[in-house]
Amino acid sequence: MALYEHVFLARQDITPQQVDALVEQYKGVIEANGGKVGRVENWGLKSLTYRIKKNRKAHYVLMDIDAPAPAVHEVERQMRINEDVLRYMTIAVEKHEEGPSAMMQKRDRDDRPRGEGRGPRDGGDRGPRSDRGDREDRPRRPREDRA
């Protein structure tokens, strides 16, 4: 059997429980056709770069699939029919990644506290610049008279 990574986007106005129900429905389709689903990651509700079918946000879900090609074709066929699924993409891979995906690692990185150990340009202290003195400390420029 072949290995796949499958990502789908569900409409923004459905609940997380309905997203989980969609995952279970598609898991059942894959298992009924002789495949199995490994890791399932729900990346949550994220903003879309552009509107898709009048939606500005979508629920993102990643599934690692080990299944024959007809099982994947059946899941994709059912996703085309389902109005709650905005987009999907299936990619054949050599092997599944261990641990959390890059999106989940990014979320962990974003959970760090802000401002610690950062310089003045990256959201740190916004005080006066240390390389410039007050106005009184600098010599005045000669003024040019204009006619």
Automatic annotation (TrEMBL):
Superkingdom: Bacteria
Tagged with keyword Ribosomal protein: yes
GO biological process, one term: translation
Function: Binds together with bS18 to 16S ribosomal RNA.
Record protein name field: Small ribosomal subunit protein bS6
GO cellular component: cytosolic small ribosomal subunit
Keywords attached to this entry: Ribonucleoprotein, Ribosomal protein, RNA-binding, rRNA-binding
GO molecular function terms attached to this record: small ribosomal subunit rRNA binding; structural constituent of ribosome
Pfam families for this protein: Ribosomal_S6
Keyword check for Glycosyltransferase: no
Protein family membership: Belongs to the bacterial ribosomal protein bS6 family.
